[in-house]
Every structure is written in structure tokens, then in C-alpha cells.
Amino acid sequence: MNVGGGEDADEVFDELLKKHGKVVYRKGDSKPPVAEADDDAESLSFAVALAKVASDVKAGDIRVLFVKPLVYWTRFFIIATAFSRPQIDAIGSRIRDTAEKQFKRVASGDTKPNSWTLLDFGDVVVHIFLPQQREFYNLEEFYGNATLIELPFDTQSSFRN
């Protein structure tokens, strides 16, 4: 399905509708503002707890970004630097364990350490990078309009200024 390859946008759209069905929004799909604020506060608490776990495993330059106004699929990003693949594994394992035991939450995403490991909890997405990959992908700049959350603990040594 390539829009530039001869098919026009209507054909592509029709094909997607056949394959995935029609998306229907009902009036009751949106939550009242108070419920949204409660969900944001709960997600923030979860994100800060996971960031603290990363800090405990000596991750560097930990950032929590409120990205909900910028993307439709999550509320918070946690971005952290690990300095080796074993450390990425240790941070990811400890975060998964904490999320499951304390919050009854299970992440989808990477289970093997890579140079960029992602753990998706739905409302909170954790990115653990080696320094070179973090600098290359530069999510903080890409999501530059996100709100940086001030963390109530030291975020360890910073790999950038």
C-alpha cells in the first residue's frame, strides 16, 4: 500500500477500512476534566517511581517528560542513560519488577538489552539509551515542547550539559 505508487489516497483509505473496520467515537468516550487530571496524577506518580528505580540502578541524566499534549498514545516519557548493555538490562529488569510488584503493571516492549530499550506501560513509556544512541535520537529535542517534570531526587551524573 504505497500512496506514491499509483494508488490514490481514497483507495488506500478504503483498503484500511476493509482491513481494520470503522472507528466510531461516542459522546461518552471522553472523560470529564477532573477524571483526566486524576489519571494524569496517577501516571505521574508511577513515572516518578520508575524514574527513581532507574536512579537507584545508577542510570544517568534521567528525564521525565509530560508528553500528553503532544501525542495521543501516552502521558509521560522517562528517558535515561545507561553506560553498558548489562546496565540497560539491570535498569529494565528492576523497572519491570517494581511495576509488576508494586503497581500490578506489565510492560510491553523490549526484553533483551539493546542500545535503546523501550518499556511501554501505556501511560508511561520508558526509554533507556546508551549515550551515543541517546544523543543520536535526541528525544528531548524532538519533544522539545514537552513539560520537564522536576524530580524529587538526584538524577545522577549527566552525560550532557
UniProtKB/TrEMBL annotation:
GO-annotated biological processes: negative regulation of ribosome biogenesis; negative regulation of translation
Assembly with partners or alone: Interacts with chloroplast ribosomal protein uL14c (rpl14).
Location within or outside the cell: Plastid, Chloroplast
One Pfam family, short name: RsfS
PANTHER family, A to Z: IOJAP SUPERFAMILY ORTHOLOG (PTHR21043), PROTEIN IOJAP, CHLOROPLASTIC (PTHR21043:SF2)
Alphabetical keyword list: Chloroplast, Plastid, Transit peptide
Chief subcellular location: plastid
Molecular function (Gene Ontology), one example: ribosomal large subunit binding
Organism (species): Asparagus officinalis (Garden asparagus)
InterPro entries: Iojap/RsfS/C7orf30, NT_sf
Gene3D superfamilies noted in UniProt: Beta Polymerase, domain 2
GO cellular component, one term: plastid-encoded plastid RNA polymerase complex
Protein name (Swiss-Prot/TrEMBL): Protein Iojap, chloroplastic
Keyword check for Plastid: yes
Stated family: Belongs to the Iojap/RsfS family.
